[in-house]
Design brief:
Elements lengths: L3 E9 L3 E4 L9 H13 L2 E5 H7 L14 E5 L18 E5 L5 H9 L3 E4 L7 H10 L4 E4 L3 H8 L6 E7 L6 E3 L14 E10 L6 E9 L4
Parallel strand pairs: 1-7, 1-8, 3-4, 3-7, 4-5, 5-6
Antiparallel strand pairs: 2-9, 8-11, 10-11
Bound molecules: NADP nicotinamide-adenine-dinucleotide phosphate.
């Protein structure tokens, strides 16, 4: 059993969620409010190590009313600095790492009240992450990037809905919505996508696309 998984992101018209320098401020105020409303509805928000380091997000609910979800970080080598906002006291944080993590970093984080789970030898198994969250009573989670983390969940067919805001920008080279090996043709993906809704942002210029992810048999 696993929680229901939303993959949520804002991307440019050319499918970038960040520029080649790590710039990722793409959402208009309306989209930001929608993102925070979603955070308030789920039990946890999951991000990868690069997003934690580059963006230093709080992952709390500030632009809408509601409670903060748990914050979940996937960091195979436990290389994120402990001074990140993610480790403040505004919401519980769980870190999934591997045996590659230096023991003193594990101890340091645990000493600060952060739960650290060793979930693999080299790679964190996303299925393990979802199973652990489900076991803690969490029934819906959001994967909030970046590209590599999105790929880790989507390529294993562990996403139920993709909610992507297309923003009126083009960045060229940068970080894609998913950063992985990719597929030679659209038929090679282990899933198909069914468009559920298109909502235009009040700001103009932006459209929120929601897709249901349908896993192919055997995926
Ligand atoms: N526009 C948006 O909505 C949005 C949202 C979020 C992020 N972003 C942007 O996305 C960019 C970062 O994306 P990214 O693709 O570079 O990185 P990312 O997905 O944030 O983090 C990737 C790193 O996380 C660790 N990781 C992820 N999955 C793992 C697994 N299964 N097992 C072990 N480790 C795992 C790895 O660290 P190790 O290599 O150390 O093992 C990996 O290098 C940032 O610039 C950020 O601003 C944009």
């Amino acid at each position: 059993m696993r929680p229901y998984v939303y993959l949520v992101s804002a991307m440019t018209v050319d499918g970038r969620i960040a520029s080649k320098t790590g710039y990722s401020r793409l959402s208009c105020p309306h989209d930001l409010r929608r993102l925070h409303e979603m955070r308030a509805r789920v039990d946890a928000v999951i991000i990868g190590a690069n997003t934690a380091i580059i963006d230093n997000p709080r992952l709390t609910v500030r632009h809408a009313p509601g409670r903060n979800p748990a914050r979940v970080l996937i960091d195979g080598a436990l290389r994120v600095p402990t001074a990140l906002r993610l480790f403040d006291s505004s919401a519980p944080t769980i870190v999934f790492t591997t045996r590659r993590a230096p023991e003193e970093r594990v101890r340091e984080l645990r000493g600060r009240g952060v739960e650290v789970v060793i979930a693999g030898d080299e790679l964190v198994d996303p299925r393990h992450v979802l199973r652990e969250l489900y076991a803690r009573g969490m029934r819906s989670v959001m994967v909030e990037g970046g590209g590599r983390t999105n790929w880790e969940f989507l390529s294993r067919c562990l996403v139920d809905e993709i909610v992507v805001t297309v923003t009126p920008y083009v960045l060229g080279r940068g970080v894609s919505l998913v950063e992985g090996d990719g597929y030679p043709t659209v038929g090679d993906a282990p899933f198909s996508l069914e468009l559920l809704s298109v909502v235009l942002c009040e700001c103009g210029g932006e459209a929120v696309l929601t897709y249901r992810v349908r896993c192919r048999e055997g995926a």
